[in-house]
Amino acid sequence: MAAADKPLDFLWFIPSSGDGAYLGSDELARPADPGYFREIARAVDRLGYSGVLIPTGVACEESFILAADLAAHTEQLKFLVAIRPGVASPAYYARLTSTLDRVSNGRLLLNIVVGGSAQELAGDGIFLPHDERYAHADEFFQVFNGLIENGKAHLDGKYIQAHNAELGLPPVQSPRPPIYFGGSSDAAIDFSAGIIDKYLTWGEPPAQVAEKVEKVKRAAAAKGRQVSFGIRLHFIVRETDEEAWAAADRLISRLSDETIAAAQEVFAKNSDSVGQARMVALHQGRRDKLEVSPNLWAGIGLVRSGAGTALVGSPKTIAARLREYQEIGIDTVIASGYPHLEEAYRVSELLFPEIGLAGPRNQIRSSFGKRQVFGGGGHGGNVRVASGS
């Protein structure tokens, strides 16, 4: 079945470095708070999302530990957590992976993050140049996959030495949890083609995503493999297109030109990520060039590193844009919106019906079959639909 013929696998995002209603402002901001992350996780578990991405980085809570906490407060939600080669040994990551998959009863997904900030990598003790980081990651996963799939690994490599390593307890998922990865450089794509299950792209215009998908397909085929594809996007969905665009404007209404310039300077100075460069090229730091493709808005990327684009519009409009990505081969969406708790409800309630997703799970019936109209929550409860409605 082609990707466009079946519903998307739809994940949400845990904003583990903090959240807010306005980009570039401390007004109505929400600090990083484990209690708030649990609120989001419980909500999206009930609202019908299949999983959540937990980010990684110096400003974020550690993804494996946060996932373990959230797994205890959810029922079906899966957790896409980061493996960062070089931050810890492949044997240690194998033990983390096995344990988290076991305690969550098989709800773990793995996200390879090699890293795009030389400054942050140096703080972690990693000083390899860009392309060489992927050669290191290749050796890392030779050991990691041997352990997680078979319980044993041995390598005397250029970067990784693991002599007769063993893993005592296997993960629930066999042969291992699925592996996701996003990277736009030639070195990243060549590395990923032999290892990953799902390739992720940030939200570029459909034509650029199509070029990347074909490039990854060719690289995987050259190694005798097939991969599937996902996209990382923000969403601003409202009942009408006009309301959605007004919400987009509101999101950056407290954002100053000085803050934009400072953020763009940091991206240019500290990042050697090809994907980040592609994001910046979409808007070039300018407020007047933000709709980079129909309904694809780059305002978030003015100050946010990584995924910087949002689909903006009514449910029907956004559903049409998503079908364009599905025609390319995208079968998974990792979504977010600001603030993440409220926007998780909007996307589920407004967009899910348009794209064939079921929405809230395990809803308890609220009537004996008669259609009801919300009556404001008074003592009398709901009211019956007026005759002829």
From TrEMBL:
Originating organism: Rhizobium straminoryzae
Protein name as it appears in the record: Alkanesulfonate monooxygenase
Record EC number: 1.14.14.5
Source taxon at top rank: Bacteria
PANTHER family documented for this protein: ALKANESULFONATE MONOOXYGENASE, ALKANESULFONATE MONOOXYGENASE-RELATED
UniProt family annotation: Belongs to the SsuD family.
Known function: Catalyzes the desulfonation of aliphatic sulfonates.
Record key words, sorted: Flavoprotein, FMN, Monooxygenase, Oxidoreductase
Gene Ontology molecular function, alphabetical: alkanesulfonate monooxygenase activity
Matches recorded under NCBIfam families: alk_sulf_monoox, PRK00719.1
HAMAP family reported in the protein's UniProt record: Alkanesulf_monooxygen (MF_01229)
Any one of the GO BP annotations: alkanesulfonate catabolic process
Catalytic activity: an alkanesulfonate + FMNH2 + O2 = an aldehyde + FMN + sulfite + H2O + 2 H(+)
Location of the Luciferase-like domain: 10-331
Record gene name: ssuD
Top-level enzyme category: oxidoreductase
